[in-house]
Amino acid sequence: MSFFTFLLVGVGGFLGAVARYSVSQYFNENHTFRLPSATLFVNVLGSFLLGLLIGKGTSEMWSLLLGTGFLGSFTTFSTFKLEGIQLHVDKRRKDFIMYNVICYGGGILLAFVGYEIGRLFA
């Protein structure tokens, strides 16, 4: 791997992490939902955008910057898991199930929709 590859992923990762933090701050300050909405939002949006990116067939450079870097850090599997465990520990069974179904099912569905839309613009 070249230095340029690391730079693309690093810059994308930095921007994605800042974007995720900004979304989390916005949701925490302006909304109250039963589910961890900020994480849910970034994960399903990120799934859609990654599907769009892949469906469009972007170049390796854009895939590294936006797909691996930006969307890799914008979405968050670890926080999703932690919040799911917190719902389970708090005995919020329905919320736990709904959170997992929306995040997994919605993520897969939106990745597919994004992919199909991306193919239209390829």
TrEMBL record:
InterPro entries: FluC
Inhibition and activation profile: Na(+) is not transported, but it plays an essential structural role and its presence is essential for fluoride channel function.
Binding-site list for Na(+): G72, T75
Top-level taxon of the source organism: Bacteria
Main localization of the protein described in the UniProt heading: membrane
A Gene Ontology biological process term: cellular detoxification of fluoride
Protein's cellular compartments: Cell membrane
One annotated GO molecular function: fluoride channel activity
Gene Ontology cellular-component terms listed: plasma membrane
Residues annotated as transmembrane: 35-54, 61-80, 96-115
Record-linked Pfam families: CRCB
Keyword check for Nucleotidyltransferase: no
UniProt keyword Kinase, yes or no: no
Membrane topology term: Multi-pass membrane protein
Alphabetized UniProt keyword annotations: Cell membrane, Ion channel, Ion transport, Membrane, Metal-binding, Sodium, Transmembrane, Transmembrane helix, Transport
Catalytic activity as recorded in UniProt: fluoride(in) = fluoride(out)
Summary of the function given for this chain in its UniProt record: Fluoride-specific ion channel. Important for reducing fluoride concentration in the cell, thus reducing its toxicity.
Entry similarity comment: Belongs to the fluoride channel Fluc/FEX (TC 1.A.43) family.
NCBIfam families noted in UniProt: crcB, PRK14205.1
Protein name from the UniProt record: Fluoride-specific ion channel FluC
